[in-house]
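Risk register update: the risk of archive-format incompatibility is retired. Evidence:
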Amino acid sequence: MPAIYPVILCGGAGTRLWPSSRQDRPKQFLKLIGDRSSFQDTILRVRDLAGADEIVVVTGLSMVDLVERQAREIDAKLTVIIEPEARDSAPAIAAAAAYVRAADPEGVLLMLAADHHIAEPEMFREAALLAIGAARVGRILAFGVQPTSPATGFGYIKPGALLPSGVMAVDAFVEKPDLPTARRYVEEGYFWNSGNFAFTAQILLDELAAFEPEIGDGAIESVARGVWDGTRLLLDSEAFGKTTKKSLDYAVMERTSRAAVAPAAFTWSDLGAWDAIWEASMRDAEGNAASGDVHLIKTRNVLARSSGPFVGAIGVEDLLIVAEPDAVLVCRRDDAQAVKTLVDVLKAGGRDIAHRHAIAFSGGVERQPVISTSQAVVQLWRMEAGAVAELPACSLQVLEGELTAAAQGYAAGAREDLRSPALVKANLATSLLVTTWL
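Archived output:
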């Protein structure tokens, strides 16, 4: 029987979850609910799925380090397909299908978003196996979630007749509705469109050839001409650039006669905004969800999170309070969608804080600003054991741990003026002050 290939789409910035989610560290890598990220939970949901072969992740070059680091934390092996640029979901999915087809033309792709929360993994696996069975007989499956409210932030699926494979035909895909329309959809038995799919590689590429040949052809060529190192496939940028920027819904799902919907009974959220995080979190008797250095007094129905400063709240209700080392957000829970408006204002003003955290992390090195003057910039670097980084010409102070640079070592307490950039390795977990003189 053809193998199952779980494919996880790992892109996007999640601006409604600012200030925690930004382009340099988007929401799928944040531990927003429990002690694992949604990306890690997605891997764990499919790792032991019966019949599953390799797990494939499609992501951008800037996220590869985060993808591989978080996979190592849960001891998961991945194949990583790297997009040269973001071109929406259809080209990314087409590239994954082209990759799978080269190994197994009848292989079934279980296409999943990295940033969704599913509370019952066993129920997810049951729905996935139902969808996979229908995909093997030529259907393109969308996972349809039973609505719990007349949400206006999701697309909907109007189900049709029950099919022999146990799934339902699709009568229509509909866009995000206004509230009265959403209420009608819920009353009439529509599903939320979760944005997760199942199909064979060959069928998906055949449909793209019929409806969007530029996407299919460009994706196939980008895989064929890509650079493969055994765990990473860097798609060819020229070929991938020929694809049309378009979502899979617009490119295929709304046009194909093969569409079907697999009803899903599990609790699902796309974690699209802070109110969704509050909904999905464990809450105390007063309805509060708190994490980090937080203390709440006479407070009800509040989400309060801190990854830096202490947060105290007294006598408030229905608020979202999110504190990062460089930014604090406070708003009413029913205004959670407006966070994107705030981020747009920051972007329009050229504020770097809209895109990047002040504390940067890459390659096992965390870089935290300490002070900046007209004469010097001081940063605190924390390096994981084994991490390698290039130091600029700077004044170096090793606070703890041990560094090696070329033939020279620096133990805790060492001070050195580096006259030129130097490649260093942390033999132990190491903290150092790096002063760059202007």
